[in-house]
Amino acid sequence: MNTARRKVFIKTYGCQMNVYDSDRMTDVLARDGYDAVETAEDADLIVLNTCHIREKAAEKVYSEVGRLRPLKEAAKEEGRRVEIAIAGCVAQAEGKEIIRRAPIVDVVVGPQSYHRLGAALARAREGGAAVETEFPAEDKFDHIPSRARARPGLAANPAAFLTVQEGCDKFCTFCVVPYTRGGEFSRPVAKILAEARRLVGSGVREIMLLGQNVNAYHGEAEDGSDWSLARLVLELADIEGLERIRYTTSHPRDMADDLIAAHRDCDKLMPYLHLPVQSGSDKILAAMNRRHGREEYFRLVDRLREARPDLALSGDFIVGFPGESEDDFAATMDLVARVGYASAYSFKYSPRPGTPAAEREQLDEAVKSERLQRLQALLSEQQTRFNAAMQGRVIDVLLEKPGRRPGQLVGRSPFLQAVHVDAPAHLIGEIVSVKVDEIGANSLFASLMSPPLERLSA
Q1: Mean pLDDT, range 195-206, rounded to an integer
Q2: What's the pTM?
Q3: Do 331 and 286 meet the contact criterion of CB atoms below 8 Å apart?
Q4: pLDDT (mean) for 346-368
Q5: Can you tell me the distance from the alpha carbon of 68 to that of 65, in angstroms, rounded to the nearest whole number?
Q6: Angstrom distance (rounded) from CA 294 to CA 434
Q7: Among 175-179, 314-318, 431-435, which stretch is predicted with the lowest mean pLDDT?
Q8: Measured distance CA(424)–CA(422) in Å, rounded
Q9: How close are the terminal C-alpha atoms of the chain, in Å?
Q10: Band (146; pLDDT cuts 50, 70, 90)
Q11: Cα–Cα distances in Å, from 435 out to 385, 393, 422, 452, 453?
Q12: Mean pLDDT to the nearest integer, 37-62
């Protein structure tokens, strides 16, 4: 019997949830006899965990598969089998079309079915390509081994992702998520708390709660009651050793009173919130089916800042949505100027097949590009101003990993900024006080305050 372990390389595209999903696929495959490697050339199985949000996402996947063809063919000449799996949202959207266009692909598995990856690979070896893109009735999280069992001895990053909610019921007219991830689903409270405790037990100090609409979370507790995200956050805050809690991505419609209060009352909930608005025009917001207006968004921001005055806001913006006039774009610029963002993501609208907006008359690319340039200039100015305000401040930083220079560590501020600090490696995983000495384009440079050093030498 051949008990040799095989090797897997997973390439991850897109959002934090895909990063989390790739980690969990690694857990599933570890149980099935695979060890993770750093390059496709070293792998027996190559998994592309795809994202459908960016422009021409499917075409980029086909291009990547084309680049893998020589590798697979060379391995075959050597008498070695290399398998290719396409996972994630492009897999869900394209399904069997991937096999038709790229016959060298062995398995296609959607984001709700990756716990079936091992079985799909077994089927592919017996009778050709296997496609798993149905939304299974069972909860995939019930079939995924815990990280502690799957990869014993693996050092945990002090900051980790934890999916609590998936899918979306909003049906924004530009978005494929309801079609690729399905409807909103909230994981049971007990399972989330158990996973969080395992993470903390392995050295995690900060958890980022993930969901397509994470603040729509409504999970069932063991007593049958329904818990909101706010109640979940407060329960997580009681876990000894967990020092920081974050969540993303939020929808303005789901920012409930108790969650706003949690930002006021829970010290472990970091003062940073990603709250996408997409446009500042009521006309375009209606065309997007966002179900909120600009004034409603302003009122929400005011309430959040009243609850947590130091709250830093991040956002998402789409420029050049079908029907957007210069006045509509001016309304977006006005909203950005009035709110003031610490950071933001902004994109030109690009059609997603199967979404309502894709069927509408599209704006000229040159118009979209010019507007995006103006918006990004304003957003960049705001981010620079926010970072510059950190000059000379003392802030707490969770040190996560080595930096590029010897003797340098990199961590995150409470506001999610990258912070570079000269510090000894044994401080990785510690929250230390630093003084910000220099402001970079996208990060801060700081020095350790003396108290932590004195405590260590005592």
Answers
A1: 95
A2: 0.82
A3: no
A4: 93
A5: 5
A6: 38
A7: 175-179
A8: 7
A9: 56
A10: low
A11: 18, 6, 11, 12, 14
A12: 85
* Cα(100)–Cα(89) distance, integer angstroms: 18
Q: Rounded CA gap, 170 and 292, in Å?
A: 11
The Cα–Cα gap between 81 and 384 comes to: 50
What pLDDT score does 378 carry? 98
**C-alpha–C-alpha distance, residues 453 and 157, integer Å:** 22
Of 421 and 116, the structure prediction assigns the larger pLDDT to 421
377 vs 359: CA distance, rounded Å: 30
Query: Does residue 153 register a pLDDT over 80?
Result: no
Spell out the residues 6+ positions from residue 381 whose beta carbon is closer than 8 angstroms to its own.
Answer: none
Contacts of 395 (CB under 8 A, 6+ apart): 413, 414, 419, 433, 434, 436, 446
Predicted confidence at residue 451, as pLDDT, reads 52
Q: What is the pLDDT of residue 143?
A: 53
Q: Does residue 248 have a cis bond before it (omega within 30 degrees)?
A: no
Contact (Cβ atoms closer than 8 angstroms) between residue 201 and residue 385: no
- CA-closest candidate to residue 104, choices 129, 79, 80, 126: 129
How far apart are the C-alpha atoms of 401 and 175, rounded to whole Å? 34
Residues 239-253 have pLDDT tens digits of 999 999 999 999 999
Count CB neighbours of 337 within 10 A. 12
Distance separating alpha carbons of residues 203 and 153, to the nearest angstrom: 11
Between the alpha carbon of residue 51 and those of residues 40, 56, 76, 237, 351, the distances in Å are 19, 10, 29, 31, 15
Query: What is the pairing mode between strands 206-210 and 244-248?
Result: parallel
Pairing verdict, β 443-448 and 218-220: unpaired
Q: Quick check: 36 and 10 in contact, CB under 8 A? A: yes
Which of 139-143, 183-187, 331-335, 451-455 has maximum average pLDDT? 331-335
